[in-house]
Amino acid sequence: MIASQLENPVKKILSKYTTVSNFFTSLENNAIECFACGHRCIINEGRDGICKVRFNRHGKLYVPWGYVSAIQLDPIEKKPFYHILPGERALSFGMLGCDLHCNYCQNWVTSQTLRDKNSIAQVQKISAQEINDFAIATLAKIVTSTYNEPLITSEWAIEIFKLAKQNNLLTSYVSNGNTTHEILELLRPYVDLFKVDLKGFNDKYYRKLGCPLNNILNSIQCLHKMKFWIEIVTLLVPQFNDSETEIREIARFIQSISADIPWHITAFHPNYKMKTTVKTPVSLLQRAVEIGYEEGLHFVYAGNLPGMLKKYENTYCYNCGELLVERLGFTIKKNNLLDNCCPKCSIRIPGIWKRD
After folding, report:
1. What tens-digit pLDDT sequence spans the chain (356 residues)?
2. SS3 of residue 66 by DSSP
3. DSSP bridge pairs for 172
4. C-alpha span between 116 and 135 (Å, rounded)
5. Which residues are CB-neighbours of 114 under 8 A, at least 6 positions away?
6. Are 192 and 172 within 8 A, CB to CB?
7. Of these four, 130, 197, 198, 234, which has the most CB atoms within 10 Å of its CB?
8. Domain 67-281 classified CATH 3.20.20.70?
9. 280 DSSP assignment
10. Is pTM, for the whole model, over 0.85?
11. How much helix, strand and coil, in percent to the nearest 5, is found in the chain?
12. Is 292 helix (H, G, I), strand (E, B) or coil?
């Protein structure tokens, strides 16, 4: 292990919670290529990938295993999934690390632990069975990998999700979407739902966050073709991705794949390294949602301002306009769906609205 890694106490702790993965290609001189995320890191002997939690020792790929940094019950609406079992709870677990480095990250304590000395995230040893037992005991209907980037800890998520599937639970990723076709093929039997961040539509700005825009666009297209359930989130950050042109470009892109993909446009609140940036104005969030509808999307939602844009927290029938699901923040006030259909015009509404 190289000296710089020994100097990081979190890195030293995490080195104990690993397993050897088969998800790589061997190269010359004990180097390996990792396919967990869109960086496709070439990792030389003794080095880490960009995520800093997948590393090469003696030509083998070691990956995170057997711990969580956070685990709790969340409303499924918090992920956010608005078309999945309204009002149910998701058992959410997270590990450490990320392949991006967003200055406004809301989960920076877990995602940026190995990059930021101010993070003091904890590590808790746990088994996949214990996580599933917790889900069953708390009557959760969904198990979710979240809080950090789940793509870089996929081997551990699969171990958990295999058991979740045996218990008839839905499984989901809350991801930045910097995927590869190889990792999606690996995940497809085990992951039902994908929340993807589409952080903007400007490649220059996207690269400042850590990857090319096309990585995310290609991932969304691939996820849809592979029939994952997708909901897309754009955090609207003033002076970063808030121009009407960029908002419209995002809406058009989503519509070109499917008008039925829910798009959540959420308000920015000053956080992490952007504490002096102003929060997203209500008027801007409202206009962004309206643009989504103007571009032909069927389901566009405003988030992070509960009660301030009531109409845009709800789900309406795209065919007749009937109120289907009324929300206040993460709380479900009414669910008027009838057998997954609009009670007025009987058209089927995309999503998973009930579970046998």
Report:
1. 343 444 577 888 898 999 999 999 999 999 999 999 999 999 999 999 999 999 999 999 999 999 999 999 999 999 999 999 999 999 999 999 999 999 999 889 899 988 888 877 889 999 999 999 999 999 999 999 999 999 999 999 999 999 999 999 999 999 999 999 999 999 999 999 999 999 999 999 999 999 999 999 999 999 999 999 999 999 999 999 999 999 999 999 999 999 999 999 999 999 899 999 999 999 999 999 999 999 999 999 999 999 999 899 999 999 999 999 999 999 999 999 999 999 999 999 999 999 86
2. coil
3. 144, 193
4. 31
5. 8, 10, 11, 14, 52, 53, 96, 97
6. yes
7. 234
8. yes
9. P
10. yes
11. 30, 25, 45
12. helix
Is residue 149 a contact partner of residue 100, using CB atoms and an 8 Å limit? yes
CATH 3.20.20.70 domain range(s) in the chain: 67-281
Nearest partner of 289 among 258, 322, 250, judged by Cα? 250
User: Under a CB-based contact definition with an 8 Å cutoff, are residues 5 and 114 in contact?
Assistant: no
* Tokens 């007749």 -> residue: 320
The two tokens of residue 180 are 């590869």
Q: β-strands 89-94, 70-75: how paired? A: antiparallel
Q: How far apart are CA 176 and CA 39, in angstroms?
A: 13
- Tokens 């949602």 label which residue? 289
- State the residue for tokens 């405003």: 302
